[in-house]
Design brief:
Helix content is about 35%, strand content about 30%. The protein is of the alpha+beta class and about 220 residues long. Helix 1 crosses helix 2. The mean pLDDT is about 95. The structure holds uridine-5'-diphosphate (UDP).
């Protein structure tokens, strides 16, 4: 697993925000809401509407990056992150409202969708949005007959298969599973288990960060 670093409250105007780093991959998440639904035709009387936008900053990659926004890859990743976060937010507690999650890649070195899910979890917790668990994400791959955890760009682009998992650690449930390329069936289990171990380690780290943040808030508030 690459080195993890997180920082809560990076965007002052947002209701919740966080920066999350996995090695050289660095992303920022900002959450607004629950707030009034902008497009009334999307309003639901039973649950909150969750929206998500994934973008890559123009400077986030070398000259490999083509379009910063609106391409098929960004649309797919926005959808995947939205579905993952929606599965852990208690949307039924906030009917007739909207939650907006913006995630932007500042520095890309593989595993940006995982880093964005981890940043979004922290930002949602910072915004005080009720969740059933802290969803975390990590990828794992298979290269030269060796399972690899948390691939960087070089490992990812070597052509081997890679699996991205979203995991609810307290409920012990997988909520996201994406796979690039084919993997023999007997190895899938191994690689997936490795990614789940990664998710568990990230969950431990995220809990520590949240606890430390709460302590700081308490300290600043005084006795
Ligand atoms: N990448 C890039 N330019 C792009 C898209 C991706 O340089 O337009 C790099 C970036 O480092 C990214 C990696 O390719 O992290 C792998 O991209 P993938 O689509 O597998 O998603 P990710 O692993 O970031 O979730």
């Amino acid at each position: 697993m690459r080195q993890l670093r997180a920082e809560i409250g990076a965007v002052a105007r947002a209701d919740g925000s966080a920066v999350f780093e996995m090695g050289n991959t660095k992303v920022i998440a900002a959450v607004y809401g629950p707030r009034e639904v902008q497009n009334k035709s999307q309003l639901s009387n039973d649950q909150a509407l969750v929206r998500c936008e994934y973008t890559m900053a123009n400077f986030s990659t070398g000259d490999r990056k083509r379009k910063p926004k609106g391409d098929r890859r960004s649309t797919e990743i926005s959808l995947v992150i939205r579905q993952t976060m929606e599965a852990c937010i208690l949307t039924n507690l906030m009917p007739r409202s909207q939650i907006d999650i913006y995630v932007q890649v500042l520095q890309a070195d593989g595993g940006t969708r995982s880093a964005c899910i981890n940043a979004a979890t922290l930002a949602l917790a910072d915004a005080g949005i009720p969740m059933r668990d802290l969803v975390t994400s990590c990828s794992a791959g298979y290269l030269n007959s060796t399972p690899l955890l948390d691939l960087n760009y070089l490992e990812d682009s070597a052509g081997g298969p890679d699996v991205t998992v979203g995991f609810l650690p307290k409920l012990d449930k997988v909520t996201l599973l994406q796979m690039d390329a084919k993997l023999p069936v007997d190895i899938v289990e191994n690689v997936m288990q490795l990614a789940i171990e990664g998710c568990k380690a990230i969950a431990t780290y995220i809990r520590e960060v949240l606890l430390e943040n709460t302590k700081q808030l308490e300290y600043r508030r005084g006795p």
